[in-house]
Amino acid sequence: MTHPDQPPAMSGATHDYVTVTVGEALFGLPIARVHDVFKPASVTPVPLAPPEVVGLLNLRGRVVTALCLRRRLGLAPSTSGESGMAVGLEQGGETFGLIVDGVGEVLRLTRDSFEPVPPNLDARWRRLALGVHRLDTKLLVVLHVDALLAFEPAAQAA
Questions:
Q1: What is the mean pLDDT of the chain?
Q2: What string of H, E and C letters represents the secondary structure of 38-86?
Q3: Which of 57, 61, 90, 128 lies at a C-alpha separation of 20 to 30 Å from 121?
Q4: For residue 89, how far is the Cα from the chain centroid?
Q5: How far apart are CA 87 and CA 42, in angstroms?
Q6: Distances 66 to 31, 74, 85, 123, 146 between C-alpha atoms, Å
């Protein structure tokens, strides 16, 4: 059995992605990993959290860690002033709300349009992306959800 984040292994196989945008970039999240799409409201900041963690929010009675994809990817802050959308993801029993600029459609893509991440890109980028699908007018970067939600342990206070 293949991991739900992995692109299809054989030619002709399909894989479904929920598309999200950050700025002009188009990203794909494996649909098997997406539990909710929602408008984040009332995010409570968390002191000493990593910079990509914007806080905690209440999603239908569950406390959810709000994670900014823009910050996680090291991109500049949005200038639109809009709060964006969130995609509910789960890892290791914890729920995350991945804050994005927008959520698009679900795309069913085949292995034929898939390319691996170019080896000359920064190692941090290669760790967060599984590869790229060539679409008619742009590229869809497939995100590695487990790597995206993995954080290095915080340094212990002395």
A1: 86
A2: ECCCCCECCCCCCCCEEEEEEECCEEEEEEEHHHHCCCCCCCCCCCCEE
A3: 90
A4: 9
A5: 16
A6: 19, 16, 11, 25, 15
Quick one: 14-149 is in which CATH superfamily?
Answer: CheA-289, Domain 4 (2.40.50.180)
Task: Please identify which residue in the block is written with the tokens 């794909």.
Answer: 28
Three-class SS state of 129: strand
Give the integer Cα–Cα distance in Å for 129 and 142. Answer: 6
Residue 24 clears pLDDT 70, i.e. is over it: yes
> What single-letter amino acid sits at 10?
M
Give the pairing of strands 25-30 and 14-22: antiparallel
Q: Record the tokens describing residue 111, joined without a space.
A: 């292995």
Beta-ladder partners of 20? 27, 103
Closest residue by Cα to residue 132 from 156, 98, 109: 109
Q: Where are the domains of the chain?
A: 14-149
Above 90 in pLDDT, residue 35?
yes
Nearest residue to 67 (alpha-carbon basis) of 50, 79, 48, 80 = 50
Could you count the other beta carbons within 10 Å of the beta carbon of residue 128? 22
pLDDT tier at 76, thresholds 50, 70, 90: confident
